[in-house]
Design a protein that fits this description.
This protein has 89 residues and is mainly beta. It has no helices and 8 strands. The strands form 3 sheets. A 4-stranded antiparallel β-sheet has the order 1-8-4-5, with no helix packed on it. A two-stranded antiparallel ribbon has the order 2-7. It starts with 10 loop residues before the first strand and ends in a 6-residue tail after the last strand.
Length: 89
């Protein structure tokens, strides 16, 4: 799901649940969306100064065998950059 964006907003986030029911580890390494120029896998993390900020995960999001990863606000999410049209919730 995604929060609705407003006209002129150039970025947004997508949230979802990923499941790896298989016996081996996996990793989400890329995503694509026709509503955005770029999709990045992001997390919220505290820096050395204690300030929490979003950052891209260039190596992707690990999905261990049997795991469930919930991408949610203030956590892991897919960041849509360069929105081509407004998002609807």
């Amino acid at each position: 799901w995604a929060r609705a964006s407003v006209p002129g907003q150039d970025a947004g986030a997508v949230y979802l649940v990923l499941r790896n029911p298989g016996p081996g580890d996996d990793r989400l390494v890329a995503a694509a969306c026709d509503a955005a120029a770029v999709v990045e896998i992001h997390e919220h993390a505290a820096g050395p100064d204690g300030v929490v900020a979003m950052r891209a995960l260039p190596d992707g999001l690990p999905l261990p065998a049997g795991a469930v990863a919930t991408l949610r606000p203030r956590g892991h999410h897919l960041m849509l950059i360069g929105l081509k049209r407004p998002l609807a919730e």
